[in-house]
Amino acid sequence: MRTLKDNILRGFLWFAAFLTVAILVTIVGYIFMKGYRLINFDFIFGDYSPTGHGGIWPMIITTIYTIIISLIIATPIGIFAAVYLQEYAKQGRLVRMIRFATESLTGIPSIIYGLFGAVFFVTTLKLGMSIISASLTLTIIVLPVIIRTTEESLKTVPNTYREGSLALGTTKLQTLYKVILPSAMPGILSGIILSIGRIVGESAAIFLTAGTVAAMPEGIFSSARTLTVHSFLVTQESGDIELASAVGIVLIVIILVLNLLATFISKKLNKANY
Amino acid sequence: MNSIETKLNKARTGKITPIKQDSEEKAIISVRDLNLFYGEKQALFSVSMDIQEKEVTALIGPSGCGKSTFLRTLNRMNDLIDSVQINGDIVIDNENIYQTNDVIKLRTKVGMVFQKANLFPMSIYDNVAYGPRMQGLKNKKELDKIVEESLRGAAIWDEVKDRLKTSALGLSGGQQQRICIARAIAMKPEIILMDEPTSALDPISTLKVEELIEKMKKDFTIVIVTHNMQQAARISDKTAFFLNGEVIEYEQTDKIFSMPNDQRTEDYITGRFG
Ligand SMILES: Nc1ncnc2c1ncn2[C@@H]1O[C@H](COP(=O)(O)OP(=O)(O)OP(=O)(O)O)[C@@H](O)[C@H]1O
Ligand SMILES: [Mg+2]
């Protein structure tokens, strides 16, 4: 009886795992099959031309811009906020409210953020439809993600580390820098990886704040088009699934490379501890 | 000190014992009327105790009677808990530790070893050098010297000298606990507090730590919490019996284990409760 139950459960678990992988492989495989024929040097590094199949280099650059700018702003603010909430603030009603607010912010559809960005950054702050407006909007979108994951990973740092360090006559700040943050680093990094995913995957909010100009941006104050927005527009305008899929492949590769990079950095940082 | 009495005492107990119980000059720690509250709940009731320099003082008593709480008042680790309220005096080295703000200095003078080994996820070397480094010591030669001395002092140098740069978390539980002791020694404290340091160790590791404590007492004043009566009897000079937050009896260890004054002490020692 026991073994039967055990086997059923195991079968179910196996099936669930199989299904997950199968769906993933199907999607990636489908996009790859559809789009790979278009991928070549000119497609990736070529400039865009509105007539026919131009390159997507401007969109790649725009995408990378938005990732870098929003992470540069969101990461330190997010980590500081989480450290404050978890390590310094008295755990009272105010902190609970802030926590509830960040949690709720994670669930808001990004179009709302897009509308806010369009009103506040684009119009009120007069930043115009631009990479910077989009990046600031994206910052607000990923900030709760970084705060949450950092808080969670700070929670997993055993209290015995804090006590052990403080009992050796160190200050709270030293304990934070030398023991707590390094131990929490893998979790913080996974938050950053999630954020990259969120940024790259975003279309609506960027569409409303950076616009759709399909040209090489002159700087962060230019209007421009990210890969995701491009893929969306291409599908919508011409129904060219092949082109959209090719863009999808590039997106997947970018995310993969960035994730590998983040994992690599995390390993390096961990090594530095030894 | 009266030499005839001393000799008599020595003949009787095999140790030199001070004539007066609370001879103030020799006490390195003097506790007077210490009350401690966790919020509304009182955990220590008017505790008074003089702890002598270069002796091992054992704290025994049933679970929840306040041994750890008392121990952690001596290096102000209770400060980490928001709800704790303390009144009374603790004088260490002629300084009232609850009237200074220099907790850092106090903790460099009063080291602590915890129930479970709590080494940081760093190399053995970095763990032992952690305290001195945080005090600002950078000189490699000096650090090397401190690390070696401390590891020798904790009787574990020979076991780890060839793997100082490997992770400390790869060691056995008993070895880790001795590294924790080395880490405390590296600060060159006057007093070392130990909270059930052997309760998570096997008998052989326990024996090693006990031998170590016996050896250490020529350099340090040691206050140790233990649930193990034999251990208290074996290694301590004085023993304090706690019950429900009060010190019932504080006496020479030989005396407390041979003819306790209080019935409750006797009941506890003979295993009739607790
Ligand atoms: N952080 C805390 N908040 C509230 N009450 C606490 C806290 N820590 C300890 N107490 C309470 O204070 C009393 C003394 O606890 P303490 O840990 O000092 O006992 P102990 O003698 O060390 O016990 P044990 O032998 O089990 O380690 C207990 O009643 C305990 O429930
Ligand atoms: Mg305890």
TrEMBL record, chain A:
Record keywords: Cell membrane, Membrane, Transmembrane, Transmembrane helix, Transport
PROSITE patterns: ABC_TM1
Membrane topology: Multi-pass membrane protein
Family membership: Belongs to the binding-protein-dependent transport system permease family. CysTW subfamily.
Xref: CDD domains: TM_PBP2 (cd06261)
Record's subcellular location: Cell membrane
Keyword Cytoplasm: no
Pfam families: BPD_transp_1
Top-level taxon of origin: Bacteria
Residue intervals passing through the bilayer: 12-33, 56-85, 97-121, 127-147, 179-200, 243-265
Protein name, per record: Phosphate transport system permease protein PstA
Domain ABC transmembrane type-1: 60-262
UniProtKB/TrEMBL annotation, chain B:
Listed PANTHER family: ABC TRANSPORTER I FAMILY MEMBER 17 (PTHR43423)
UniProt superkingdom: Bacteria
PROSITE patterns for the chain: ABC_TRANSPORTER_1, ABC_TRANSPORTER_2
GO molecular function per UniProt: ATP binding
Gene3D superfamilies per the UniProt record, alphabetical: P-loop containing nucleotide triphosphate hydrolases (3.40.50.300)
Keywords: ATP-binding, Nucleotide-binding, Transport
Alphabetized SMART domains for the sequence: AAA
UniProt key word Isomerase: no
Protein known as: Phosphate transport system ATP-binding protein
InterPro entries in UniProt: AAA+_ATPase, ABC_transporter-like_ATP-bd, ABC_transporter-like_CS, P-loop_NTPase, PstB-like
Naturally occurring in which organism (per UniProt): Cytobacillus eiseniae
Positions of the ABC transporter domain: 29-269
